Amino acid sequence: MDFQLTDDQRALRAGVRELLVRRFGREQLRAAVDAPELDRALWRELGEAGFFALRLPEAQGGVGLGLPEAVLAFEEAGRALLTGPLVATHLAAGEVPGAATGESVVAAVDGTLVEWLDEADVVRGDVTGAVPMRSADPLTPLHRVSRPAPPDPVAALLTAAEQLGSAARTCELAVQHARTREQFGQPIGAFQAVKHLCSEMLVRVEVARGAVYAAAVTADPLDIAAAGLLADEAAELGARDCLQVHGGMGFTWESDVHLHLKRAWLRARRGQSAAEAEEALAEDLVAAAPGPRT
Amino acid sequence: MDLSYTPEEEEFRARLREWLAKVLPGLPPKPSPDDWPGRRAYDLGWQRMLYDAGYAGLHWPADAGGRGATPTQHLIFLEETEKAGAPYVGANFVGLLHAGPTIAAEGSAEQRARWLPPVLRGEEVWCQGFSEPDAGSDLAALRTRARRDGDDYVVSGSKIWTSHAEVADWCELLVRTDAKAPKHRGISWLAMPMDAPGITVRPLRTLAGSTEFAEVFLDEVRVPVANRVGEENDGWRVTMVTLSFERGTAFVGEVVACRRVLGELAREARKNGRWDDVPLRRRLGRLNAEFRALWRLTQWNVSESERSGGVPGVGGSVFKLRYSRARQDLYDAAADVLGPEALDLDSPWTLDRLSSLSYTIAAGTSQIQRNIVAERILGLPKGR
């Protein structure tokens, strides 16, 4: 058993991170907040880098990698707060023309919501009579639809990966702030009340990481359900605690913390609800042979 | 990222399962919790069986008499013995997981030859003399003092929370050998024979009603200087080696056990009708997610230590923080499955619920663990 990243996986993660820092750093992020349009050039660049075609077999012009690699790429996307219907377009690679290369923007109905409807070239699911919402996430336009689409396990896993990336990032932001912000003549990170908030953030991240990566390896629906619960918790509570550590500054529009929190709330509404995941995991306990097989 | 096991690892698992199936039915009945001589004999008997079958000191280095097994093989061992319902490490805990590995890492050739084989063969029991009434979380503030007198140290002071003290042959003892040095720099690590004159053991009752640990009073106890492991006044560093072992794989079997208990809870709830209580049912589902994730984190940490050459990292603190809380949540859920029956000490899980309260305290309180995570992993400044 070697449940650690391989050298290739580390290189892939570093490559995606480098691309996103260069093409979707803080400046572009804040520009997107002011003008939430999909950057088509960036979308094509993501396509060229293989972000959408990652799991498409090489025979079909894809990269031919698996779920673990996709999870690492989506973790980086979550970390950078990358915008656009990433999951829907990734899942459409090889099925919708232009999705794999990033020439098409594909949106999809998820539950009773659809993200990025107006910007999409192709929409999967029934969007008859879709009504726009004033989206709580300034970086994600939302519509309400009346015909819900059933949840997709792979979409749920990639969403959990995004949540994990966001949770890790908010933990970093909180720690950076706690090390530099001084009050009472010392960095606030020297105070145990703040220290312990940060420690708990890291604990939630690491527990979620184990669950998300394992679900990527097994692709087991129950592993994915567990990963979703833990990653949602890590992202939502992480952003909240990060906001708390930032104090008044965290409550301003200028800070990035609320962007993580709002996106975490939005992602938590994708796929099956927490209640459905818990019910499935409860049912597993009374099944003939409970628990993972590995 | 790979969760599959190599053919060698699967072979190891299969042979172990076979052996467990063969020997477990012939075990004597478990002694009662307060029968200390009985517990000692039972635990040492099990250790002897492991030794004869070649499973003793699996994770110890080969040059210390161990099998030099990989962390993954050790994980498989802990998982399979738990699944098969084999005895716990019990009274062998300190010898196998603390004192033994410490002596293996820091002891002289003579010391290794004297103390390691009897631990592996199930002949000697060790206890741990670290904590004191005034040195709990602040372990380095310990005051039990040792003054040199010829070839002996003369030791006076008191220790507390000493598990298995009543039946131990040896105590891994931290003493202050230099009162003037800064507190971390005047400590030494001694192996103290528990039959030496001047030692008084007074059992303490836990809130679960059992005598799991004791106070140990030391009045001018003579310990040979030859029993010091590591240099004089270097005991703190020697101890940190020990504690890293403790937080390594100490809880693997317990995670497996918790998952079994969770299944039992669900079946009990099905039987007694509490399964129809939607919030309770969902809580059990969330606990399933929790313990699955803790198992994955365990596999992650074990793989990490395998890559780094068997060194447990600070990741153990992350695991311990979450696991100790999850274990308490599990038994709180058990109480809600049982309803009023949870107040009956004879109900299943009631004593376990009481015992679970120690998990956020023993082996470094959650508050101390959070400081460790914040300072050593996140790099936040040390508080005053």
From TrEMBL, chain A:
Q: Name one Pfam family in it.
A: Acyl-CoA_dh_1
Q: Where is the Acyl-CoA dehydrogenase/oxidase N-terminal domain?
A: 6-90
Give the cofactors, semicolon-separated.
Answer: FAD
Tell me yes or no: is Oxidoreductase among this UniProt entry's keywords.
yes
Q: Which domain of life is it from?
A: Bacteria
Q: Which UniProt keywords apply?
A: FAD, Flavoprotein, Oxidoreductase
Q: Which GO terms describe its molecular function?
A: acyl-CoA dehydrogenase activity; flavin adenine dinucleotide binding
Q: Which residues form the Acyl-CoA dehydrogenase/oxidase C-terminal domain?
A: 157-269
PANTHER family tied to this protein: ACYL-COA DEHYDROGENASE, ACYL-COA DEHYDROGENASE FADE28
Q: Which family does it belong to?
A: Belongs to the acyl-CoA dehydrogenase family.
The name under which this protein is listed is Acyl-CoA/acyl-ACP dehydrogenase
UniProtKB/TrEMBL annotation, chain B:
A cellular-component GO term for this protein: plasma membrane
Instruction: Name its co-factor(s).
Output: FAD
UniProt-recorded name of the protein = Acyl-CoA dehydrogenase
Q: What GO annotations for molecular function exist for this entry?
A: flavin adenine dinucleotide binding; oxidoreductase activity, acting on the CH-CH group of donors
The uppermost taxa in this organism's lineage are: Bacteria, Bacillati, Actinomycetota, Actinomycetes, Kitasatosporales
Record-annotated Acyl-CoA dehydrogenase/oxidase N-terminal domain positions: 6-123
UniProt lists the family membership as follows: Belongs to the acyl-CoA dehydrogenase family.
Q: Which Pfam families match?
A: Acyl-CoA_dh_1, Acyl-CoA_dh_M, Acyl-CoA_dh_N
The Acyl-CoA oxidase/dehydrogenase middle domain covers: 127-220
Read off the InterPro entries from this record.
Acyl-CoA_Oxase/DH_mid-dom, Acyl-CoA_Oxase/DH_mid-dom_sf, AcylCo_DH-like_C, AcylCo_DH/oxidase_C, AcylCoA_DH/ox_N, AcylCoA_DH/ox_N_sf, AcylCoA_DH/oxidase_NM_dom_sf, Mycobact_Acyl-CoA_DH
Where does the record place the Acyl-CoA dehydrogenase/oxidase C-terminal domain?
233-378
Q: Which SUPFAM superfamilies match?
A: Acyl-CoA dehydrogenase C-terminal domain-like, Acyl-CoA dehydrogenase NM domain-like
Determine if Flavoprotein is one of this entry's keywords: yes
User: Which Gene3D superfamilies does this chain map to?
Assistant: Acyl-CoA dehydrogenase/oxidase, N-terminal domain, Butyryl-CoA Dehydrogenase, subunit A, domain 2, Butyryl-CoA Dehydrogenase, subunit A, domain 3
Q: Which UniProt keywords apply?
A: FAD, Flavoprotein, Oxidoreductase
